[in-house]
Amino acid sequence: MKSSQPTLPVGNEIVRLDASDLSAAIHDRQVSCEEVMNAYLDRIESVNPSVNAIVSLRPRQELVQEAQEHDKLLADGQDMGWMHGFPHAVKDTADVAGFKTTRGFFRGEFDILAAQSDSIHVARIRDAGAIFVGKTNVPEFGLGSHTYNEIFGATGNAYDPSRSAGGSSGGAAVAVALHMVPVADGSDFMGSLRNPAAWNNILGLRPSFGRVPAKGPDVFVQQAGVPGPMARTATDLSMLLQTMSGYDPRTPLSIDSDGGLASTLERDFSRARAVWMGDLGGYLPMESGVLDLCESSLQIFEALGIKMDSQHGLPKAFGFNGNEDLWPLWLTFRHWLAGSQLYPLYYNPVTRAALKPEARYEVEGLVDGTDGRPPIGALDVYEASVKRTAMYNAFLTLFDTYDFIVLPSVQVFPFDIEMDWPTSIDGRAMSSYHRWMEVATIATLLGVPAISLPAGFNSEGLPMGIQVLARSHADLDLLQLAHGFGSVDTRSGEGLTRM
Rounded CA gap, 242 and 248, in Å? Predict the structure, then answer.
């Protein structure tokens, strides 16, 4: 596979380690937390200026001192957890005590105070022993799968910094891909864990809704955005998901079950079945080469013993008419949730003027209507929820037959970093800043887990991924698939030591 990804320094063996191996090395006292911190800070210093993935980086002296304190804890027999001494950077939409949560927007006259406490999943990462070195860059308010904002600028792709990193977990994906952090947290509303994972050749898992609790001003309605893990291997992805997961009484819809996440990732797939949905029978426009590359990766499923079928279009059920209902349903859902969250800033003329067009689009679609649609009212929201339920029921029937549903992770390859978003794909105009990401809406509307797996590179050395959906709460199935997927050499079918 062609790659222009910056190579690791020959002598820097610490940052070469997978997260699980790094954990073992720290706990076996083969390396100190101080050595680990300095190695990663050297790596960040070397690579980050070319991609701008990690922002709000703390001073080295503070971080090294904290690493030394972690070493003292281990010397005294106090083990915080598997991430003891890990350098970690949190997506800049989540709170970390002592850091500002800019969300790619709050700066200058809109400046904010540092967070007083951690978000729920961040607190769990801290409790597992991580040391927070900084934040990872995001688009303004996480809108769009292209990481750029007026505070920190744009994040470049790990394989070609002149191209987009994806988003909104773009900084996190690049930081993992370039070994600036062992693993990373992110979040996913419309593919924000899956799209950048695909574009940076790593793993990104959108968990089942409720698997990783997220506390906000509303804990009952916001059923779209979910925190989740990113990693280079399935083992590391699984370990971080376990750390982030678990019921929290502050989020009453969170899952009160471990879902078997601690189970083995080894699995016999000889009785498993998967269905390839491609471009939904031509409904989704795809850049040339995307489908061919994704389809070539399906041989890995077959090498694992999974029986593959294909289906050209979304399943239908009473109340949901397949492909034709997908985008109208999504627009109502997205405008309602994203527009409602952003409305206070839109209502204030001063902050409204500072909002990027994507943010204004979401609010205006809610209160004024867009794409020839009227404003969205309570009845529209209810009817959309009923249609969403019908869509879920249609997919339940599909999951009666198939363990996995497979689609491209993204509809285009990483585009020029100077672009705001693709205005057309294969000659078909995109009606909004996020229409080119429509393939990512399916898992979100269903609330099911979805993972992006590396599918390979095109002739320009740009990565692509395939996303795999499983039935609700079947997160372990996707982790096991990722583990199997990473052990198969597509050229020979023989096992590899790692992905």
Answer: 14
Integer Cα distance of 209 and 202 in angstroms? 22
Q: Considering only CA atoms, which of 248, 99, 225, 107 is closest in space to residue 169?
A: 225
Task: Determine contact, residues 211/259, Cβ cutoff 8 Å.
Answer: yes
Is a pLDDT exceeding 70 seen at residue 151?
yes
Q: Which amino acid is at 284?
A: L
Q: Which residues pair with 251 in a beta bridge?
A: 248
Cα dihedral sign for 330, 336, 337, 341?
Answer: positive
Could you tell me which of 26, 18, 474 has the C-alpha nearest to residue 202? 18
Q: How far apart are CA 331 and CA 321, in angstroms?
A: 16
Answer whether 226's CB lies under 8 Å from 209's CB.
Answer: yes
Q: Say what the pTM is.
A: 0.96
CA gap 95, 102 in Å, rounded: 9
Sketch out the chain's domains with CATH numbers: 19-485 (3.90.1300.10)
Spatial contact of 462 and 289, defined as CB atoms under 8 Å apart: no
pLDDT at 366 over 90: yes
pLDDT tier at 498 (50, 70, 90 boundaries)? very low
Alpha carbons 167 and 410: distance in angstroms, whole number: 11
Model confidence pLDDT, tens digit, residues 85-98: 999 999 999 999 99
Cα distance between residue 137 and residue 122, in whole Å: 16
Chain Cα centroid distance, residue 190 = 9
In this structure, are residues 22 and 98 in contact, taking their beta carbons and an 8 Å threshold? no
Share of residues in the chain with pLDDT > 90 (%): 93
Q: What does the block give as tokens for 285?
A: 């426009």
Q: Which residue has the tokens 């101080």?
A: 34
Digit-coded pLDDT (tens) for 168-197: 999 999 999 999 999 999 999 999 999 999
Q: For Cα atoms 186, 464, 287, give the angle at the middle one, nearest 5 degrees.
A: 120
For 308, the 3-state DSSP assignment is: strand
CA distance 60 to 40: 11
Strands (DSSP E) contained in 281-437 are 307-310, 404-408, 424-425, 428-429
pLDDT 10s digits, 395-414 = 999 999 999 999 999 999 99
Tokens in use for 345?
Answer: 């800033």
